[in-house]
């Protein structure tokens, strides 16, 4: 699971235009990958404007915005 999340972030970073005004990014992961998705330091996610969306099997979504980490 961790390697998949690392790949996800790598793909995001390759395509991100962090200099663009008003652009925010989202990472959507299953609940099982929550810990792996939050291994990226909160300060890094905040600087890159990345919000993590954690989705469970019933489709409920937990939004983990930069600055609101567990």
TrEMBL record:
Under what name is this protein listed?
Uncharacterized protein
């Amino acid at each position: 699971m961790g390697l998949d999340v690392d790949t996800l972030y790598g793909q995001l970073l390759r395509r991100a235009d962090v200099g663009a005004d008003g652009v925010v990014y989202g990472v959507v992961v299953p609940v099982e990958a929550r810990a792996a998705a939050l291994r990226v330091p909160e300060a890094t996610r905040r600087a890159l404007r990345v919000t993590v969306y954690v989705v469970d099997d019933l489709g409920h979504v937990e939004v983990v915005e930069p600055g609101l980490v567990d």
